[in-house]
Amino acid sequence: MAGAIRLAAGVVEGSRAALSRAITLVESSLPDDFARATELFVELTRQQARRPTAHALRVGITGPPGAGKSTFIEALGRQLLDGGKRLAVLAVDPSSATSGGSILGDKTRMHALACHPSAFVRPSPSSGALGGVALRTHDAALLCEAAGFDHVLFETVGVGQSEVEVANMVDMTVVLLPPGSGDGLQAIKRGLIEHADLIVVTKADGELRAPAAALAREYATAMSMLRRRWRGWRTPVLTCSSHSPADVRAVLGCVRDFHATALRSGRFEQNRSEQELRLLFSAVQGELAFRLRTDARINALIREQHRRIVGGEVAPRVAADCLSTLFVERMRGGQSAQ
Ligand SMILES: Nc1nc2c(ncn2[C@@H]2O[C@H](COP(=O)(O)OP(=O)(O)OP(=O)(O)O)[C@@H](O)[C@H]2O)c(=O)[nH]1
Ligand SMILES: [Mg+2]
Fold it and tell me: Which intervals hold domain AAA+ ATPase (predicted)?
């Protein structure tokens, strides 16, 4: 527990080394670390009660591989930092099946941010944590907030389901799409933009300026036919060259506009509350499943039922029902005993 107290204090004081260690802890798949991460959050909540921290704006930046996400985050990040903001950038790889190799390349790409005293860049996500990607990403965002960062950006490679996962973890989803890939409105087919609060067609400079503008028009038309994300917000479509400060400023303006609109309408709070409920359910499921797998007594019960199934004494569904009923009854018993 002493370790948790020190680590929590380091995070709240804004120590990057402590923040890094804390994120490593919540990303770890070792059972001991899982327990230590839980202790850390108990302690963090206690310390924050004395020094409350404001919520950061969490923005998911997603898009196909090579869309220009890291370059854009670097440009946007620099403007946020120039405006006196404190920024954390976290890479998320929801589909742990993908290599994450491209994200590792960002260490060099986000160099200017990584060196800035008001920025924190965490380029390589780990996979396979016990609580699942949603929990560990949420934990990482909470840690960044506790460390005083007011903007948390998540870079995620858009490969199918990942957008949905990311949209479930952030306040705003920005989808970046590159021009000139020759696949036109592919992103619609792949469901990439259903969760977009803002669409940005990237690399709108040089030879790609005209194709980017054409693609943005196509998306704007398509979006006008899609159902609104929520009343009061129609997903805008912008073009942007990350090399043009004016373009990046326009995107930042749109992000601010979204934030203000979401706060004003109550959508912001509602979205977070829904996310936290989903998170709670999935975290409890994950933890119960883990305990079922690792508890010796429960394992013995499961093996006993397994023997009965193999021996033809009982059908699997009947054994499962019997075990589940037993667990629930024990839980209730434990409750009344307290
Ligand atoms: N011309 C031009 N090139 C850009 C722009 N933004 C990014 N690029 C180039 O596009 C390539 C991919 O950029 P990244 O920022 O690494 O893209 P990414 O989406 O982070 O890529 P992954 O993380 O690998 O999925 C690089 O060669 C960049 O230099 C831009 O605004 N204009
Ligand atoms: Mg990248």
Answer: 55-304
